[in-house]
Each structure stands twice: as C-alpha cells, then as structure tokens.
Amino acid sequence: MNSQNTKQKPPINWVPVIMFSVSTLALLTLVPWYGIQYGYNASAVVAFVIITWLTGMSITGGYHRLWSHNAYEAHPILRVWYALWGATAMQNTILDWCSGHRVHHRHCDDVELDPYSAKRGLWFSHMGWMLRKYPSGQVNFDNVKNLMNDPVVMWQYKYYLPITLGMNFGIPIILGLIFGDVVGMLLLAGVARLVLAHHITFFINSIAHKWGSQPYTDENTARDNTFFAFLTHGEGYHNYHHIFQTDYRNGIRWFHWDPTKWFIKACSWVGLTKNLKKVPDFKIQRAKVKMQFKRANEQLAQASNTDQFSDNIDQWKQTLEKEYDDFKILLNEWAELQTGKYQQTCKTLQEKWQGASIHIRFKEIEDGLKLQHERLQEFNAQFSFVKV
Length: 388
Hints:
Blueprint: H1 14-28, H2 30-37, H3 42-68, E1 73-74, H4 76-88, H5 94-106, H6 122-131, H7 151-158, H8 160-179, H9 182-205, H10 226-231, H11 238-243, H12 259-269, E2 273-274, H13 281-304, H14 310-343, H15 346-355, H16 357-387
Antiparallel strand pairs: 1-2
Helix pairs in contact: 1-9, 2-9, 3-4, 3-5, 3-9, 4-8, 8-9, 13-14, 13-16, 14-16
C-alpha cells in the first residue's frame, strides 16, 4: 500500500488504556464474583449511590458549568468540595478537563481540532479519543488562564495524584472499616462506581451528539435527549447547552430533569453560589423560531421540486413570508428597546422601569415570539402531514 495514502496511528496513551482496562475487567469479574460468594452490605450499596452522585455532580456542576463555562460563582468551600470529588471521578485535573472542553465548544465537530468530535464516530467521541495521543487532544493552557488564577484549581493540579489516590482508596477503606467490609466497599463504591461515573460523563460527548432533537440549532451535532438527561445529572439537554453555554441551567423548564441546576440553585439559598447566569427568554425563543423557519423553508424547497403540492406551494410561501416579516418586526422592536434601555440614565431608567412601560413591552415581545413559535410548529406539522 502506498505510504502516502495511509495515516500512521498516534501512539497509545497507556495511562487511560490501563485504567479503563483494569477497572472494566474488575467490574466484569471481581465485582460479580464477590457479590455471589459473599454478598454486599447495604452500606456498600448506599456508598456506591452517594459517591456516584457526588462525583457526577462535581463534574457537571464544578468542572463543567462552574469552571469550564463560568456560569456562576461558587464559595471556596464548594470549590474545594468540587475539586476533591471531581478528582475522585478520575477524569483528569480541572485545568486539563476545562481546557479540552473549551476547545470542544470552540471547534465543535471539527475532525482535526475538536478533541472528541462526534463526526469521528460514536466510539471515538465516547472514549476512543483518550486511548491514543491524538493531536486534537493535546492540552494547551492558553485558553484557561483565568483558571490559573484560582488557588483551588492550582492546588488540585499540583496535588492531583495524591488527592485522587486518597479519595478513591482512602474513602472506601475507611467506610469499609467502619461497616466491616473493606473489600466489598472497594469493589462496589470504588471500582463499580468509577466505571459507571466514567460512562455517565462519556455519554454526554457521544450519545448527546448522536440521538435526540435539535430545537435551538443544527449548526453542530449536539442534541437534547431527555432520557440521557436523567442519566447524566441534566447534561442531556445538550442542544440548548451548545448554543447557550454560559447558562447555569441545561434544562430550562421547571420540569426538565436537571439535578445540577437544582443543586446550584439550592446552594445559592445558603450563600454557596451566586451570580447564576440565565439566558433571557427572548433569546431562547428567537433561537427556536429561527430553527422553525429553517425547517419550514427546507420543506418548502423540497416540495417545490415536485408537482405533487404545486397548488398549495404559493399559499404556504405567502404564509411563511408573512410570519418572517412579523419575526423581523419583533426583532427590530427588541433591538430598539435594548438600545433605549442602555442609553437612559440610571435615574430615568429606574423611573421608566417603575412605570412598567419598558418591562411590559419586553414581555409582550417575548409572548409574541412564543406564539409565533407555536404557529410555526403547527405549520410544519400540517406540512409534514400533507406530504405523507
């Protein structure tokens, strides 16, 4: 074979290869064997559940939403807590994790630059990207300089190995001594928990870029997937997250399963978190309406290429054009209100806001967008029905 047509595979990354191999092998052999031979105490099961939750929440709430995206501010006590249990998850340091994740958002789906690009396959985005030293996975701390000023981040970076070993072995051993089953605690709250926590996080990079809906944007592969939101502490609302990454929420509706959001919010009630960032409802509705227009135009373009719907095409086009004109009017009104809002002096703005005139108009525009979103949904549904 011509050497010019073959790509040499990057060298194997032995540390994660050995870690994943040993932990998975132990999960498939030692964990069930010990359970059959001796059984597990209820304390080991409870520890398994609690530590899995603690490590998962430290990744989603700490590594991801706090440090990667600066979606809120956290008290030093909570940051230390995140750093300890995040190290227990064995997904690298805060600095390494956040640097790679910021690259992922900046170059999402780029097969050369995105560290875990979904366009390189499901296996690659799930964990294959860690098994070899791919150029896209090489860490450059230039994009996390703000984190290098965080003493908690740098403390964890400096002492990551002893912290990780101490948390992963020390905690189960201490609990095992207390409850009289060290081996069972190490296997269930240690090994089984570690493997599960790994794949819960990896699902976000793989499944959440493969299956689900795209209500906000189709400019990348990120999907909203309610089932995987349940498995990943709320990270399954990934289409929303990729377009509004600084929002501390992933599930924006009150009923969306997002324990990370609820935990961050609850912490704000006791002073552990503050300055929780939320994307304005208008921007969310604007993104959804844009996607509805895009899908409607795509369906019309497909229908225009056939004679099957020739009698209705002009009517559908007129309807869509009218909706788009209304959409532009709403956007212009919003822009004018925003400009006027920032140009006012504090005193004048306060008087206007107390008079509720600006506030009411903002609300009217947001409601208008919501109604338009509903009309476009109905339009697309009717159009799809007619096509069938």
